[in-house]
Structure formats: structure tokens, C-alpha cells
Amino acid sequence: xxxxxxxxxxxxxxxxxxxxxxxxxxxxxxxxxxxxxxxxxxxxxxxxxxxxxxxxxxxxxxxxxxxxxxxxxxxxxxxxxxxxxxxxxxxxxxxxxxxxxxxxxxxxxxxxxxxxxxxxxxxxxxxxxxxxxxxxxxxxxxx
Amino acid sequence: xxxxxxxxxxxxxxxxxxxxxxxxxxxxxxxxxxxxxxxxxxxxxxxxxxxxxxxxxxxxxxxxxxxxxxxxxxxxxxxxxxxxxxxxxxxxxxxxxxxxxxxxxxxxxxxxxxxxxxxxxxxxxxxxxxxxxxxxxxxxxxx
DNA sequence: CTTGCAGTTGCAACTGGTCGCAACTGGAGC
DNA sequence: GCTCCAGTTGCGACCAGTTGCAACTGCAAG
Lengths: 143, 143
What we know:
The structure is a homodimer. Helices cover about 45% and strands about 20% of the residues of chain A. By secondary structure, chain A is an alpha+beta fold. In chain A, the strands form two sheets. Chain A has a three-stranded antiparallel β-sheet. A three-stranded mixed β-sheet of chain A has the order 5-4-7. Chains A and B meet through helix 5, strand 6 and strand 7 of A and helix 5, strand 6 and strand 7 of B. Chain A binds a DNA duplex through helix 4.
């Protein structure tokens, strides 16, 4: 758990506490590459410590999201997924509303958009992790 | 209700029915400029016809969204809002995560992004109505 | 090491939204 | 008009996520 020390610092600086429950949730998020739902995280943490409450998981995720340590993304399947924010390799998703296929979108598209909005209006957008819906090339042909 | 005839055509062409409940929901959406939540629409329709079920409202909104007659937008306050799609005057929102202020964003920013994604990957994104979170100019100074 | 308290936790009650089902109905085709 | 059936409705049961609250606990300051 030594790799969490930096995160613990961030929590404390912002007036939050580093509790065992939180460290377990953090660990579940950090050591899993993919997108996890709140339920997934709950299950993982419960293996180690069966007394956690699901509401603790939700509240912790809300705190982490506020601190921008995790991103929250609606993947269109009805459930919200959470992912640890990494500095490198940011990515977004193109989700087809017909066939449900998911493609990746490189960050530079949204980075450019963000820079443009910032310089025009002064508003600094959080474009960490977007899910963009639409029609993939195949499904456009099918129509 | 004569102004709904065009919408009724769209519904029928796509194999859907124009029921009184739907017409009332449509009417509520068309004659209200702002963003309405499912609950708002439910309340409005219930004034005219008290026997509608909330699930009918949700299912109708899902159909209208699929037909792209309405947009669904999460305004960050925890509730999802719906808005009638107009051809002219599309707009997006810049929502400050600190003070909650909402600014409008002209469509051309996202139109350009959409065109770029389309020509690079063949994916045709639905960029009808976006809510972009971030920090407004004032709140950036405050930090 | 002790203390104080803001922040956190687990529980239970609640809420908003979804699903399955049986009954109903709009409207295309005759 | 009448018929038929895919699509729709209202209902009740259900489930994921939220909230209020009293008890607890990290941790900063003494």
C-alpha cells in the first residue's frame, strides 16, 4: 500500500481523512486498469473487509471525483463507471448507439477543444474522460 | 395540437404510435423553452390527464431520444433534463463545478470537433446537447 | 500521550427510475 | 367500417443509489 502515500497527502491537504475503507477503495481503483462500476469496487473491497457499506463506496467515489483523482463516465449501458486518473494515456470513448461497439478517441481532439474554449471564454473545462455517442461507420452503411 | 402533426409523422414512419399520452408529453416539451426533468413533464401532463404513469413518461422520453426528437442532458445537479431538439440555435452548456453557474457554448465548437472525428475515423458523433463541466473564470481566480 | 472535533462510517429508511406482465389500442390493410 | 397485431399502457414489484442520523475515528494541536 506504499504507493498510495501521494494520494493520502492529497486527501489530507484538502481536509479529508485517509481511512482504511478509503485506502481499500483506492487500491481497488489503482490496481485495475479498466472501468469499474461502484458495484465492482464494492465486491473487490468486500473480499478484504466484509463490513464495508455500499454507501461508503459511493461517498468515497464522490470525494475522489471532487478531488479529480477518479473520473466518472456513463458508458451508456445504464451504469456509471469509475477510473483512476493517470497523467499519461488519457482517452475517450466513441460508443455506437446502434451496435454498442466502443472505440477509443485520442485525447488531442478534446485537448484542442478545451484550449479553444479556454482562450475564447476563460472557462476551463474538465475534459478528462468523455463518452461520445453516435453511429459507427458500419452502422451508418446499414441504415 | 395541430403543430404536432409533423412529429406524429416521424413516429409513425418509424413504426411507433401516436397515443394521447405521447401527444401530451410532446406538447409539454414543445411549449416549454427550458430544460425539463422527467418529473416536471409528469406533473405537467398529470394536470390534463391524471392517470398517466411515470413509467410511461420515461418510456416515451426514451423513444423520443432514440428518434432524436429530444436531447437528454445531465446538468450535474443529479437530475437528467430533456429538451426539444430545434434545428436552429443549438447550444451547449459550460457548468462550473465550484459555483454552479451555467454559461452557453455556441454549437460551432462541437460542430468542428464532430466533423474532425467523422473525417478521421468514420464515426458520426451525436453532439446535440452537451454539458461540459469545469471551472469558470471567476472561480479560477478564487483558487 | 491526550484531547477535540471535523470528517467519516454503517445502518435503516427512503427515493427515483426500471422491468415484467396482462390488458388495451392505434392504425394499416382489407 | 372491421379486424388484427405490434406497439403501448398502467400496475406492482423490484433494485441501485441516496440521505439522515447517531456513533465512531483520524489526525492536528497542545
